[in-house]
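S.,

As promised, the protoporphyrin IX containing FE run. Input:
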Amino acid sequence: MATLKFLSIFIIYFAIVLGFVNSQGVEVGFYKKTCPNVEKIVKKAVVDYVSIAPTLAAPLLRMHFHDCFVRGCDGSVLLNSTKSNQAEKDAIANLSLRGFQVIDAAKSALEKQCPGVVSCADILALVARDAVSLINGPTWQVPLGRRDGRVSILSEATTNLPTPFDNFTTLKTRFGSLGLSVKDLVVLSGGHTLGVSHCFSFGSRMYNFTGKGDMDPNMDQKYIAQLKTKCKPNDVTTTVEMDPGSFKTFDTDYYTLVSKRRGLFVSDATLLTDKQTKAYVLAQLSSSGSTFFEDFGVSMVNMGKIGVLTEKSGEIRKKCAFIN
Ligand code: HEM
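Predicted complex:
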């Protein structure tokens, strides 16, 4: 009898603890009762825009990343600046983000069906997933239940976003401090199979690597010569494809490029300087097949859990560019 009593107390205690832990985080199916069509509605917005303009997939994926790395995945990257405050959106790294109209379209469709229920931070996470899968990439289940933050500060984006000049140690520290592993780093870097980069993001590798007008010895010198025909010194307007030939489709090419020392950024090249990340890069090229697609979904879910606001913190914005 005493054992039974002890057992039931134990079970109740466990249920409470589990419930508590769970309610702190995000979960798949969070809107099952409150907005059952959320995934369909978001996907429609993505299909409407991205099937007409496939180059939008890249900045939409990047938008979720830039949201999560600054104050957590709280939609703070979507907020507009005000007279008294410059927002994350205005940081240099965010000036090339595009596709805010897709987020707005999803949000206004959702507000019609389930007003005040779905956060902009969750919309971003779903849009990133749907954009990737629409252009031949993997798909994954997105845990939901994030709430929107009320704060967005330009200088926090400048400080917290990785730069294209970061070396391995810096990247490892940046990712690690947000709870992401070295594996997440090498997997998520594979997002650079999509999209374009401005010449200035890797200009010094071509024209002035150590301040003496030299080139980065860790980049394929023939590739630099090719890139120089597109990017002139101090060029601030031209963009080049990061995965030339298939920058609009999600594939494993990024790892081929990095292995050939043709990744555009120091942050890409540096993946060859660590044993673990180098092994991952090379494994993606092996004949036994790549694990990148599966891994990408797992790491995107990990990234999507950074610093989330849940329960009573934050709010559900009515419009994604403004706090309520
Ligand atoms: C590891 C640290 C990272 C660094 C240093 C970095 C840096 C950059 C830079 C400098 C650009 C080009 C910006 C420009 O010149 O316009 C870029 C583009 C891009 N990044 Fe990253 N990135 C990193 C990680 C990621 C992650 C984790 C993702 C997503 C999972 C991602 C997705 C993208 C995409 C899709 C683009 C192309 C955007 C477009 O076409 O508009 N990056 N990144």
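The longest strand covers residues 196-198. The chain is about 45% helix and 0% strand.

- D.
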